[in-house]
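Weekly puzzle thread! Below is a chain. First person to post its structure in token form gets bragging rights.
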Amino acid sequence: MFRYDIKKVTSETELNNALAFAKSVFKDSGNLDRPTFFSEFWLERMPANNDFMLYAQHGDEIAGVVFGYVESNDSITLSTVAATERYRNQGIASSLLKELEKRAAAKGHHLIVVEAMEAAEGFYLKCGYVPHLLVQAKPPITLEKLRSLNDRYDEAWTYNDGKDIKLCLDTRGIDKELQRKYDKTFPECSTQTLFTKQV
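Winning reply:
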């Protein structure tokens, strides 16, 4: 049986090792320029969030990581969930996620949110996460224009500060047809499946 221990990050060295692991898993994703792949982002958040900065230790090596942080609305945003290909199908990522969910609930954070890459959508569905369609745009596109393509779903939430416009639809399933419609109609927008879970 494959054995590993789940640990929380408690030092800068552990943080750097976990981030190096995450970068090795996502090296071909084109996302390594995101702030969440840099230690500065996490060092700033570590005192309040290290219960949600977890890694799986197998012998002398890291086998998986899950990193999340508390948002201003008390939800937790997951930024990194990864296991190496060599250790996939061992339940590492789902065990890390369950541990984070348990810690979140114990601290009074009952909503977990993650923007998932398409390849990970099935994983989040299996873990009980609910999909929504997130559409992000900038002016001159307006929230009203984004709303004009949706005739099926309730809005989960919207955001518009004059610079960034976001529309999150409560699809309750993965709707690739509507996502393609947004991509085709507003090619300058970005669309993605956003997953949430109440814990």
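Puzzle host: Confirmed. Bonus trivia for everyone else. The chain is about 30% helix and 30% strand.
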